[in-house]
Write a structure and sequence with these properties.
The chain is 31% helix and 25% strand. It folds into two domains: 332 residues, ANL, N-terminal domain (Rossmann fold); 128 residues, ANL, C-terminal domain (GMP Synthetase, Chain A, domain 3), CATH 3.30.300. The chain starts with 6 loop residues before the first helix and ends with a strand. It has 611 residues and is of the alpha/beta class. The chain has a nine-stranded mixed sheet with strand order 2-1-10-9-11-12-13-14-19, sandwiched between helices. It has a four-stranded parallel sheet with strand order 4-3-5-6, sandwiched between helices. The chain has a four-stranded antiparallel sheet with strand order 16-15-18-17.
């Protein structure tokens, strides 16, 4: 494909080439019919016609180059809304549908204010409810709703394609807010084209690609991977809502089997869910041999997950070579790096103590230094006692310029040194919407050697053997006795301590604390959701002590507190990422209900958990 073309032109070429022979399929559960599911198709030709009609309507409203909020449930209507905005040169802002009944609409209100939203695109089923919320929020008259499935009466033949420049904003991707308030990333048409080609090259995709997925459309992985990439490639895609997937995880694999999918994608927790919930009886009807690619990204990729997937589903065709660990973020449109097609994951063992000093020293299984990749073996986790950490490579960039930089001195670091990951190239977004200072600091960084501009990702990592390894977020780093410990390493060790463990969040209590409590950064807290039934004869109190002992021993922590709680204690973003800072705040505010715990005296004295 010619890189100089705009994204809309490529979509229109695929519409002319394939019409409705290429299509999206949305899978929903039929109400009142048990485990019965309905598939609804939307061909490229019909989608194009609806998008052109919507674009004509939006043009008549006079909102070209303005931001418009897209609030849709998962389904095909969102595709029309988003593509209609692209066709009209309107800046789409995809966002999760607010849970108005539960009063959780603060994030939506912040987006409306931040992006100066005047119009919301939605469907007929939700327009009245949204209009009522706008009235209650004092936004009626300022913000209006348009139901794109019924409120558009325009002739698609009247559409004329606007002029697109590479720097013109295509959409705003609001960050998930896992470590800070959500910010609108301005993704330009040039960014979109560049990253679409990056993905095409890495997956070697084309019109014969068939995808199946469930990642929400407001998440960068879902929007780019499941909506825009199929339009760019001219291929088929089958998707379902995250709620439908969570209710019956095996459906994901059944759809891969039925449609002979060649690619799927999900964060690591999605693969963990099917490992826990798919039964032996359900395996019998599955055939995953058609899969060429299973992308795993958007959160830490765990070696144990990759290995257990091969061990469990190898009998029904899931191969090691299918894995494609990857790394990316909204600020780079999506993809930064991924394993080459058909190579499978690179998993290596590194000296744990050296990593705490920001040095990546490879180890063999007996603890000696080595340069070779660790053999792929089933059943192993990511941590081996106190001295070893297993890491999964995020692969290699296709064309982007990726550097590892000392975040303080801004000096470029050599291979084997841990620093902040900086990214340069055409996929890097223009910046944050209406945030010039943060844009300058994050998107226009220059190294001490004068190289740049680069995006500062906020992620720590290193390069070894040409492979990029991501070790964690700078903001989630826990410093104990001068050593750097990554929160997700603590969480992985805690989850591995007992079978009843579920979602886990680790954080430090930084001084000063409320009420003058003298707990410093060495006071580490683990909040773990747990199923009481899984405790069995041991009881939850014993599980809390077991978790504390296992984690403290593995990391040499002088003090550690464990709180076991029910579902919902650990705060998560709308895309499922753990919000450690919000969980920490909930703990300090006494909003976490403790089922059992093993707390340090200073932490117990705070009285911040409820019984």
């Amino acid at each position: 494909m010619e890189p100089s073309k705009d994204f809309v032109s490529i979509v229109r070429e695929n519409v002319r080439a394939y019409g409705n022979r290429r299509y999206f399929t949305f899978v929903t559960e039929e109400k009142g019919r048990g485990r019965s599911y309905r598939e609804e198709d939307l061909g490229f030709g019909d989608l194009d016609r609806k998008a052109r009609a919507l674009a004509v309507h939006l043009h008549a409203l006079g909102i070209q180059d303005r931001a418009v909020l897209l609030l849709y449930p998962e389904g095909l209507d969102f595709l029309t809304g988003f593509l209609g905005c692209l066709y009209a040169r309107v800046i789409a802002v995809p966002a999760p549908f607010p849970d108005l009944d539960a009063g959780r609409s603060e994030r939506t209100r912040r987006i409306i204010d931040d992006a100066d939203i005047r119009w919301i695109l939605t469907d007929t089923a939700h327009r009245e409810m949204l209009e009522g919320w706008l009235t209650d929020a004092g936004l009626a008259g300022r913000v209006r709703c348009l139901a794109t499935d019924a409120g558009v009466d325009a002739d698609p033949g009247e559409w004329t394609m606007p002029r697109y420049g590479p720097d013109r904003p295509a959409f705003l991707q609001y960050t998930s807010g896992s470590t800070s308030a959500p910010k609108g990333v301005v993704v330009s048409h040039g960014n979109l084209l560049c990253n679409a080609e990056e993905i095409r090259c890495r997956i070697e995709g084309g019109p014969d690609t068939i995808g199946v997925g469930w990642v929400p459309h407001y998440h960068d992985m879902g929007l780019i991977g499941q909506v825009l990439q199929p339009l760019y490639l001219g291929c088929r895609y089958v998707f379902l809502s995250p709620i439908t997937f969570i209710k019956r995880p095996v459906l994901w694999l059944e759809l891969i089997t039925r449609h002979r999918a060649t690619i799927t994608l999900a964060p690591n927790f999605g693969y963990e869910l099917i490992l826990r919930r798919v039964t032996d009886a359900q395996l019998a009807g599955l055939d995953l041999a058609s899969l060429r690619i299973a992308k795993n990204g958007a959160e830490p990729v765990l070696a144990g997950t990759l290995e257990r997937m091969v061990e469990r589903f190898g009998a029904v065709g899931f191969r090691r070579e299918t894995w494609m660990p990857c790394y990316g973020m909204a600020e780079t449109t999506l993809l930064v790096a991924a394993a080459p097609l058909g190579t499978g994951p690179v998993i290596r063992e590194f000296d744990f103590e050296a990593l705490t000093r920001n040095e990546a020293v490879p180890l063999t299984r007996d603890g000696e230094r080595a340069d070779a990749e660790v053999p792929f073996r089933n059943g192993a986790g990511g941590l081996h006692g106190h001295g070893m950490r297993r890491l999964v490579s995020s692969g290699r960039p296709v064309t982007l310029d990726v550097r590892v930089v000392d975040p303080g001195s801004r000096a470029v670091l050599p291979e084997g040194r841990v620093g902040e990951i900086w990214v340069g190239g055409g996929s890097v977004a223009r910046g944050y919407w209406a945030r010039s200072d943060e844009t300058r600091e994050t998107f226009q960084a220059v190294t001490a050697e004068g190289l740049g501009p680069y995006l500062r990702t906020g992620d720590l990592g290193f390069v070894a053997g040409g492979e990029l390894y991501v070790t964690g977020r700078i903001k989630d780093m826990i410093i104990v006795n001068g050593h750097n410990i990554y929160a997700h390493d603590l969480e992985e060790a805690a989850r591995a301590a007992h079978p009843g463990a579920r979602t886990t969040a680790a954080f430090a209590l930084d001084a000063p604390l409320p009420d003058g409590a003298a707990a410093g950064p060495q006071q580490v807290i683990i909040v773990q959701e747990v199923s009481p039934a899984a405790a069995g004869e041991r009881g939850l109190a014993e599980l809390a002590s077991l978790t504390r002992d296992a984690v403290a021993r593995a990391f040499g922590l002088p003090s550690l507190s464990v709180v076991l709680s029910g579902r919902g204690a650990v705060r998560r973003t709308t895309s499922g990422k753990i919000q450690r800072r919000l969980t920490r705040q909930a703990f300090l505010d006494g909003k976490i209900k403790q089922l059992a715990g093993d707390l340090e005296p200073d932490v117990a004295a705070l009285g911040r958990v409820s019984a």
